[in-house]
Fold each of these.
Amino acid sequence: MNPINAFSNLLKHSVTLSQSRNNLSLKENQIVQGRVLKLFPDQKALIQLGQSKLVAQLETSISTNENYWFRVGGSMKQGISLKMLKQVEYDKNSKQEATRDLVQLFHQKPSKENILLAKQLLKEELPITSQQFSAAIEVIKHTNKQAIPETIRAIQYAIKENFPISQGIIRALVQAQTDIPLTNQINSLIDSLQKVEGESPNISHLTQSLVKLKQYPVNNLLEKVINFIGNPELHRDLTNNEQRTLAQLNIKLQDVQVLNQVKGEIINLLDTSEQVTKQSVIQNLNGYVNLPKLLSEFESDFINKIATEMTSSITKDEVLTNLLSLEKQLGHVKLFSQVKIGSEDKNNIQSLKELLIIASKEVDFPVLKEQMEHLVQRLHGHSLLTQDHGPTQQIFTQIPLYFLDHQSDLTIQWEGKKQKDGSIDPSFCRIFFYLQLPKLADTMIDVQIQNRIMTISITNDHSDLKEFVLRKTDLLKQSLAEMNYQLTSVSVKPFELTNKSDKPIKLLTNSQGNLSYTGVDLWI
């Protein structure tokens, strides 16, 4: 089974935190559909607007169990005022008439695209103004027919989050829900950039930054091996013969030619995938190809042994450092600031988004320019999906991960209560991870934390994963206990048993109970 892309599902299926907290948020001039549930004495009625039930003071005649179109007026001392426009012409077997009704209320033509937009707005029960509807229609007019469904989903999300309905914002949200992996998008852009002749310094800088993202696993391994050779404190568990060999190597490494040969040995050892090109790293080793053999066979074998061991071991600090470095380079500082709150950015790395914007102005090739614009829009979409809702906030990011043997996008969604310093409270939050692994394939991890009590749910189709997780659960509990977390359960389930719509990532939702009212909420 191939679950739909998690990032795409954010826009298709999300219920935002703001919606969860606020049962109803009405703004002046919005058009909203309401149903009269019950009439009370003294010209009062129980009205349902979307998922909310409100008591209204009536100044016009309406009937029970009927649907009406209302326009939201300005706030009054007695409550919000609604102007009843007309009764909804509603076919019990279809919402087609109600859809046409809404289009006509906005004085728009009942075209196929306008009807489709109105239908989706009604389905989501979204209040909308005439200006928003007109702006949405204008965006759709400049959209390819194949892209209209995802464009409408982006428009819905923009309305929910009170974003302006503009070409730039909607295109960014559309790119944020693309099914193309971010790693593939970067690979294609690198291929196109390397074909440009007589590139400018800005384009060259962009190309180098993109290649650096891909080469990180190789360069990181080289750095670790060289550091190991030059640090005697790390040699204590080795034999005397091995320690002497490393001491001799450390002296030899002072020669640049020997250093490059050691790096070359390591690179040639790697069984890398096509995504991480060994040749591009080797080209940076001055004169490596023409070097005479400066290492003994034993020294070469020993270096290969060290490198092999290091490729199979990585610490949590290395993982975190890698993720935060990548996220900063992409221009997403939210996650970085959450983990490194209060730290200073001494490197002041120019983000990939900034480099793309600058370099795109110097590109004349339409295909390359479009590739760069799509990546800029995607990165902008990432920032739009990161929301601050007063006491709570939602961080959403996607990071391209390049390993020695594969590549994958890591999608992270982090939601929770906000502390005084702006960081998410680690005692009350929820974190989703979604990525594709070479052996486990599509994997989703849902971590829920309430008062430092943690539950973990893993969704994956691998038949042996559940047994493996059970064997490691006690060790995980112990590790989390050292961090002052209490793990109560770890569950593993296949994607087939989740929601039929295959939603790998769902935003946090809060159930809304029945509300009791005293007084008046609305004036109609």
Amino acid sequence: MEHELVGLHGFGGRFRPVAPGPFVLTAVAAALAPVRPGWLWAALVLAAAAGPWLAGAVAAVLPWTARHRGPSYWRLSERGLERIGPDGGGLARYERDRIEGLGVTTADGVLVVQHKFGTAAIGPLPQLGLEPLTLFVTARRLGIPVRLVHGEVSDLLDPALDEPGHPPGADPGDDEAELVIPLGPTRDLAAERRLLDQEAALLAAAHEDAVEPASPASGPAVLASAEPVPSRRRVQLLGALSGALGVVMVLRLAVDGPDGFGVRVAAACWVLASLTAVHASRRRSLVSSRTVWTIDRDTIEVSRRTRRGRPQQAATALAEAHPQARPQAPAEPTPEEPTPEEPTPEERGVVPARGALSVAATEIAALVVGPGLRADALTGRPRRSDLSVLAFDHRLRLVARLPAHGIDAFQLAHALADRGYRVITPGARAPRSPEYGLEGLPEIFARVPGGRLVVEDGGLGWADAAGEVVLRMPEDRLGGIELLTIAGHAWVRLYDSDGDEFFAAPLSALRISRTDLREAARREGLPVNDAEYDAYLNAAFHSAVSTLTLSADPDTDTDTDPNAGPDAAPALTSGLEPGVVQGELAAPPEPSPADAPGVLLDATRRSRVGTYGMSLLLAEIVAIVGAAWLGPDLGGFVAAASWSVPAGLLVGLGGYWLHDRDRPRLRVSPAGLAVVTRRGRVRWELARDRVAGVGIDDAAERMPRLVVWSPTGRVLRQVTFPPDLAELRRACERYGLPWGPPDADRPTPPPPEL
């Protein structure tokens, strides 16, 4: 096929353990079973422990199981949008002649298909293994219109939006008019413009002659991600030693005779510990695999390990493996190319455990470097990646997905450009749109043309363009007005007489300025709170008072009243006069974030109860394992467990109680953030000018996810305990701390006026 897009998916049929959890439980049950003789008991335990690898070997060897073990994937081609099963058969198909358009929601990234009878939601693009750019370019090559729309998929499945329409001013009976695909309330023109710009750059790279770099680099460049700590070899060695120790202990207990219950419990503990260590080390070694790029003028190679030898030897090996030169025009397809029914490893985007992904320079027109997808090392399913490279040929077909997680984007882009490759980087990222929460606005707000919020007659009202108030809220129903800043925009929150919030909206949508609302509400005697404005006035007052001084010399000339008595106090003067000793009225020092008045947020009750339970569980596990281990020397397992289990319960409760007495709490104040324990110890504090955002970090795989960002976007601190996020957000908004990650590109505009 001329144009085809295959979704990212892992390899199928490779050798890997199958169902390790059930086999571990089976091995533990076999160790507890009273089987005689001892050699049969040991054989059952070891066979159950080796079950995952035996089942994986059988599944990898048998052709039928190898074909059916691979994951399914999605494919977009001239046939339409298809889901291909592990055996190559179609699981789902949306025919090309029945597809009227494709849409992608910008809020949750869900792909939807517009057809004659409505709209069908396929799923999130990352789960489908498709990137927005590749989908956009391939669909347009196939003649399928693609639209990026605001909102979520639930907004697109509104039955009122399922009927296609025509452009404004077109004749409804004109069948040749362009069809408007109603895939949402509004289109995200900015996101579509970015994709169109990238497509234009790809077209320019495909049709223009390659430009040699000003200072071409000689020799290949080798870029690799950081070595994991501990290294993979140490992790694998630890897993092997744990497995060997478990085998030795099972054989030793089998030789002594597994007649007693305590002996079988000890064997079960050894089996559980050793198998847990083996499987954990395997998962850790897979997750911590490296990404190594070898970039030459003729070939790009991505592998999991570096080539042995010097870079010159690597260049020689690459030249021998790919002897073709790099022409300036697109190369004609050869009969040896794989058929579309069998995606190549480069199209899959998965680096094999042994070998590498290799792409010849003759097949590459441009490389798109930016965030993308990569295959999960454990499951093979696609997941988001901070850095990935998409290779397009001269027909704008995707020829390879090259993972680059863990590699510096700056070094990678320049290394590619220095060796003659055309590099395209996405533009500025889309601004993060905060949750404005406008669903609580009354319908009358939108029905009044030119409506605005006004303060009159001791309450609030909604007036039309002529100034007539059409909706009133009396003073007795208004418990408080709070003015604050969210994402750089002024907001108002209204509370009822019980103190519950019932309305929140940006002032730009209400068509009233912050100053007008504050001053008008205070003139009418309404309870209004503007903490940021009050903090500004206090700071201005203290800065003004700090310059005032008292005259300390009675013989100096002072601005005193000549009619005042001898006991009159000296007047205040400003500035320093020559020959005058001044006594300054110094302003009080600024309070630290740990001492400033604010809100103290504790860990949630659910988290504390869960931690208590986990502490008790770990203590009981240690008590039972100790009783099984030392039971034969202490009168048997039952006698040892009779006192070790209650002791473990007391130790777990007492240990966590000691920790809970001094648990950390987060203090949010106008001065900044601080973590203070219950006994008053300050673990860390950050001043207000160093905090550019507080919120959940979704950009990186870290625990805990609640972090504090600096103005440059760097993570300053991580909050190790989980406070109530709703209370934390409310506290940040109340004291002027920004909620959410900082947006260095541009501020998010407020929503359009109603």
Amino acid sequence: MREKETQNRKYKLLVVDDEPFISDSMKELFETELGDIFEVFNCYHPKKALQIFEYRLPNLVVSDVKMPKMTGIEMAEKMRKIKPDVHVLFLSGYDEFELVYSAIKQNADDYILKTEGDATILAAVRKMAELIRHENLFMEEYESSQNKITYMEPVFKQQALVHILDGSIVSTEDFDKVMADLENPLPVKGQLLLLIGSLKEKVSQKLQENILETVEQMLYKAWDEKKIGYIHKVMYRDSFVWMLETGEEELSGLLFVTVLDIQKIIQQKLSLQMRFVIAENGVLWKELNRKYNDLWYEMQGQVLNEDNSVVMENRKEDAAEKFNGESVEVERIFCALTEKISLLEKILSQENFEDFCIVQEEILQVLENSRRHSMYALELYYSLGNMLVSYINRKNIRMELASRIQLVELFDPGAFETWKEAADYIRKLVQVMKELHEITDQNTQITINEKIKAYILSHLSEELSLTVIGQVMGFNPVYLSRVFKQYEHISIRDYIEKQRIELGMRLIKNSRLKIYEVAEVCGYQNPAYFIKIFKEHYGITPQECRKNKM
């Protein structure tokens, strides 16, 4: 019920841009497409935005980066002092890429290049809305858990679980006696999948209990009873332990993404760095002591991503058995691919993309058939990623690429659900790089403004709205308007009017077309309006102009 209420709740969104046309257009776009999710406000100056922010306390701010007197980054810093959990999405142009990249590392949630169009902007805002919903749901569960502490299982069960984890209870007879009076005992023969968490910081016992309860509820919400029957939880040796009753063999892999989400929310909402380790498979109660020790050492030995990591158990077995879910033969194959990587680097340095794609495909086929949590596959992906990043930086094409494909995934393989998705992304990225290379070689790239002017001059008699021009050019109309005015020092609308009236003047002087015919050729369906604009420009009417010529 609470989750449904959270889904139906409207969030608040504030749009900030120093150009009224852009700010108003964004507000209209969000109200039209996302009105069921957000209540939208907008303004044109950071100072006014701060006043609105303090009064409305929006969940999300969509802002331009470069604004007079105060940048979007400076504004966002002030907003976070008022509401630390506010989300900020920056919209930027090519020339602001480095500035926004710096902002992302400091205090922004995401950025979108204005060249990416309305669909990409809307997708980014929807993603922010989903993140806000999850955060609110987590906090509701967290606050609710504080009221449930008094109704938790008796301390006796906590002690019983501790004794089982430390190996004090080993016989079936002792186990049966301990479990006999419990409302939710451990299963005698059922499988238990261990999930262990560890905090860098020391926290109070009450906070420990709240985290235990909250994570349990988040797991229940993520998976139905067919996947997780019941969850037992306990604090043991300063670690958080969840024992999941399950008959699902693949639950370990499925939990990975869920635990990543939980970890991120704990860091954002509680400002705590929490590591997790997930058992590879379920065990019987008698094996819990051994399994816990294995996982504890696994956590100490595999701290990925500094102090904030989610680790999958990596069982070391005999050579004839599987290693991390893969055979020794797979290990041999991956090792052999390192030579292919070296060959790829040489081919890429020569910019021979045809040969590059052929060799790359051999590697990607191995990658896309790997197990989800294969460490070999992860190493392979990063090897490809580092090679491509080196080329992108060397050729200085990051901004051009960012306008055509998201680059965040290149540094975050966790963004993909399968290695096949990761392989397809690499294919797509390389294809875009190849296209950029071909464009540069052929020297056929024309500036955006030149394209706009060429199109306008050849279609003066037709509809020339920003929307139409944007569709033809393949760019966001708001972005086109801003870029055009920045370099031409005139708006697209004024440029169109200027060219139409100048064409009208030439036709009045050099043709025998009637006034209404001249108006139609110049794109004016209403002759009276054409006459009015003509007089505003030249101080005389078209009739007077033609009479003076005679």
Amino acid sequence: MDLNFPRKPGFLIAVLSLLSGVIGYSPSFAGDIPLYYKTPTGSIAPVTVGTGINSQGYPVVPTYKGKDGAWHSTTVIAQVCGTNADGTPVACNIADQLPSSVLTTAKINVQSGIAGLNDQAQVTAGVNTASQILTQTGLSEGNQGSIPLNLTSNGWQGDAPSHLAGPRITVGVSMNNMADQMAMFGGHRLYDSVFSKFYALPYGVGDNGGCVHSSVMTYAPGTGANCGAGGWDAVTEYELATNNPPWYIAGADFPDENGTSHSVTFTTSGAIIRPALPASYTDYMHYHMNVMTNIVAGPTLYSGLSLDGVQGHRNQDQQFYGGMLESWKNDSDSTGTFTQFTMTGQWQPISGSAVDSGHVPQVGTQNTASAADRVDALDQTQYAEFTHPFIEFGTYIKHFTRNTSCEVIIKSGTDGEAMKRLGLSRKCDEELDNWYHGPDYGATMHGLTIGAGFDNKVSQDSYGLSVAGLWPEGIRAWLGSDGIDFDGDAYKVGSRIGSAAVVGTKKMIAEYWQEPTANIGYLESVKLWSQTDTLSETNNANTGGAAANGMDVSYWFGPRQSSSSFNVDGTFEAAIAFNPGWAKNGLALCGSNAASFDMTSSGAACLTVDSWGNTSTTGSLAAGNGLTVSSGTTTLKDVVATSYKEALKTPASSSAPCQAGEFTDDENYHYVCVADNSWKRVALSSF
């Protein structure tokens, strides 16, 4: 019998005695050790059964039971592979004598060894590799134990399929209500929780070592490159969303990879495509993926804001038919091969009202009996270049870069949602902090920039920032006293610090900018500004110097030609002045010539109403439809009138009360008060 072992004395006996410690190698006589062997001459000879020596110096197996039923002693044998310098023998290393394919138990879970398996076929050592870990199926950490039912989430026990204990980390493992290529961290139950943190020190630009975390909505790896960064920028987190193409598209206008075009015949809840799609299409199909066609159920729907009254400038939605994919298959009939797919329900418009039950999309057919304008047609807005119906698999009509929610739930009950009321938090925030530590003006900080790279105009319902809902305040700005709360092209506000404590100085409060007419090419402003007229405080509590209080400051509103932003400059054209220096707590309307005078104390070129309502002007007053004074004394100087009308009145006597200069008339006389309480008259006659 040739065992193909090395030809060394006693090797057979030594190997037989050590086979119990060998893994992965089975000689041809696996099982009981043979007690006889056949010699080259064909005769039968007994096998000498050898054994090794244990740590106490005794034979490992001192006796054995032979085929004859009697007990026999073993022979203690050790293989010698050399001698020491003093001539003592050196034992052989049996592992060195075995074939390279044989592994011993000593090599389990050690360097240059193998990972062992337990009785559940689970690896008993961790995987630590500098190479890739590749799997054709899924990767899972393994299920956790069941959650104790006395915890606050015990209301979930009635919904076991959705909240069974699950793996903390799964990649490509099929789970309910999740895409088949989903990576999930955290499992379903409380102690499935996983915490994550990313550390990276950028060294280059964008995807080439300059981006810590990049999330890209893309149809192909590598798109959205550079992580949104420039040549010397580093980015912690980059997000990109774009209108990617559908996963798959079928129709007469879209030949497949073999050059074959396909016709589409719709059913109530799906379609039949002829001839059958190539086998590759199944690689793109997923349960519950979005399905849409270029057939619309009615005219364009317009919504949102209109700034110029033009319908086509508003938000537009097309009434495309769509649904969710349920099943798909290839088959054949007497006509030929076909691909058939079904959806979870019947075809319905993605936008707009539902069509009649059982309706099959078909160009030219009315889909709603009660609405004559609801007629199926090929879309001519987004897909005008395509002349046949087609099916898109895996598409969407709106995409978000980020959609964040902050929620507080306080309600009665015992389920997991209601038990959230036991959580202490009642506040929601989303915060963006910028920090700087250094000298004044040593850094440039930008909190939030909302840019727009538009080649052409978007719908007028588009906006850069929207604050909606029942907020008590929409936007709140907490800046330093010299900060600018708002700086826009059309409207700007100044800081909270008023004009300087110097008589005559001005400070912009707010300003409006606009082209005088369309396409004139330049802007003009209307400004609201403050002006220091006087200084009432000589020893201000804050600065110790002179200061102006509220009564010392006037407020002006009017246009200024050829001015600059945030400055009260340019040419003064006209203004309304509140609390002017010459009429405190009053109001003045000033023309452009007022700028030629001291506008802190002079009311020249202004019509002024003081705090009592008394009106004065340094110019003339013209009343085109008469002037009526209801009561009181009116003093007129150098009055030129084309006509004059008074109410006829007769003094009671020549000593009736009056002030010198008053006059009145009746049917017979003209009366003049020549001195206080002294009247004279002259008779009137016809002519």
